[in-house]
């Protein structure tokens, strides 16, 4: 092949390996999972499979365990992200000022976010242990309160799981929103201040509108990431007690690697993907509306 003067052949030679890796690592498994979802394929019996059409999808929609996992996932995602956003914007506003030690405080905020999810789950599982956990110990020694079994009571366990996620990922909200606050122009704020606007009016009518695009992007990232949560919940509660904290990601794992129903697990995964796409597409629509594109 003849090399053109503009080096176009070289560009194509560099482009092809990247496309091969992309196709082999993402697109091929993507298509394979879709085809598998239309069969009764089991990993333990790979030679015994039949085409079942949309039966797996119908089964997933009517499966009470899948429905419960879906509700748990929505509660977990939107509960955690909402709390993280409120705390994130409040802390970012507090840190968006000149004070002594502010750099050290910002550095400390990174620590929970830098910990691996498995380590976070194991850490909080130990802290919340009924018999020798530090939290129950201080509740008893300081306040005379007998701490509950945090991870075994169905009414407490989901708020606890959400709280652990808030502890780990609120720093992400803080740092992202703080960067947005520091990138804003001071002119509109100073003009509103000169006109006699109160601090609340400054925030609600001047600062918040300028942050809308950043807020939507940060919320979109966190919602997508929260939908994928697996490690923390698995190590913290294993989806229990019962299935009270079983997210859809855990349900897919159980179906695929405990019951070995690969085709059915693929169908649940695709329904999961459709839900995430529908939710995130609304955020993207709002984002484009705000940016005027």
Task: Report on the architecture of this protein.
- It is found in: Cell membrane.
- It comes from Paenibacillus alginolyticus.
- The chain crosses the membrane at residues 12-32, 76-95, 107-127, 156-181, 202-224, 267-288.
- Residues 70-283 form the ABC transmembrane type-1 domain.
- It is a multi-pass membrane protein.
- The chain is mostly helical and 293 residues long.
- The chain has a single domain, classed as MetI-like fold.
- 73% of the residues lie in helices and 0% in strands.
- The protein contains 13 helices and no strands.
- The chain has helices at residues 8-36, 55-62, 64-95, 102-114, 117-127, 134-143, 154-183, 187-194, 199-210, 212-227, 231-236, 248-257, 262-291.
- Helix 7 (154-183) runs antiparallel to helix 10 (212-227) and helix 10 (212-227) runs antiparallel to helix 13.
- The two termini are 42 Å apart.
- The model has no long low-confidence stretch (mean pLDDT 86).
Spans with pLDDT under 50 lasting ≥5 residues? none
Described by the principal axes of the CA atoms, the overall outline is globular
| Element-level helix/strand string | HHHHHHHHHHHHH
What class do helices, strands and sheet pairing give?
A: mainly alpha
The helicity comes to over 70%
CATH evolutionary superfamily: MetI-like
Can you count the helices? 13
Per CATH, which architecture? Answer: Orthogonal Bundle
CATH class: Mainly Alpha
β-strand amount: under 5%
What's the domain count? Answer: 1
**CA distance, first residue to last residue:** 42 Å
The CATH topology name reads MetI-like fold
- On the 0 to 100 scale, the average pLDDT is 86
How large is the radius of gyration?
A: 24 Å
Work out the number of β strands.
0
Largest sheet: none
Pfam families: BPD_transp_1
Main location: membrane
Family: Belongs to the binding-protein-dependent transport system permease family.
Keywords: Cell membrane, Membrane, Transmembrane, Transmembrane helix, Transport
């Amino acid at each position: 092949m003849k090399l053109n003067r503009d080096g176009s052949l070289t560009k194509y030679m560099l482009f092809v390996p990247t496309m091969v890796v992309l196709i082999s690592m993402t697109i091929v498994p993507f298509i394979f999972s879709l085809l598998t979802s239309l069969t009764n394929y089991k990993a333990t019996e790979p030679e015994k499979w039949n085409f079942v059409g949309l039966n797996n999808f119908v089964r997933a929609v009517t499966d009470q365990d899948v429905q419960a996992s879906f509700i748990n996932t929505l509660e977990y995602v939107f509960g955690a992200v909402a709390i993280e956003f409120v705390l994130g914007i409040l802390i970012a506003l507090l840190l968006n000022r000149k004070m002594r030690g502010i750099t050290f405080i910002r550095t400390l905020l990174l620590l929970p976010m830098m910990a691996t999810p498995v380590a976070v789950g194991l850490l909080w599982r130990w802290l919340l242990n009924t018999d020798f956990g530090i939290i129950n110990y201080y509740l008893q020694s300081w306040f005379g309160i007998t701490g509950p079994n945090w991870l075994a009571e169905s009414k407490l366990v989901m708020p606890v799981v959400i709280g652990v996620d808030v502890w780990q990922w609120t720093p992400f909200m803080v740092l992202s929103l703080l960067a947005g606050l520091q990138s804003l122009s001071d002119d509109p704020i100073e003009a509103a201040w000169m006109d006699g606007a109160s601090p609340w009016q400054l925030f609600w009518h001047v600062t918040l509108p300028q942050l809308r695009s950043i807020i939507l992007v940060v919320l979109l990232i966190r919602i997508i990431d929260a939908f994928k949560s697996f490690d923390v919940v698995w190590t913290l509660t294993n989806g229990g007690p019962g299935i009270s904290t079983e997210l859809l990601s855990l349900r897919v794992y159980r179906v695929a690697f405990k019951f070995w129903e690969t085709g059915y697990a693929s169908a649940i995964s695709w329904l999961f993907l459709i839900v995430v796409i529908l939710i995130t597409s609304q955020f993207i629509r709002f984002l484009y509306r705000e940016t005027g594109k």
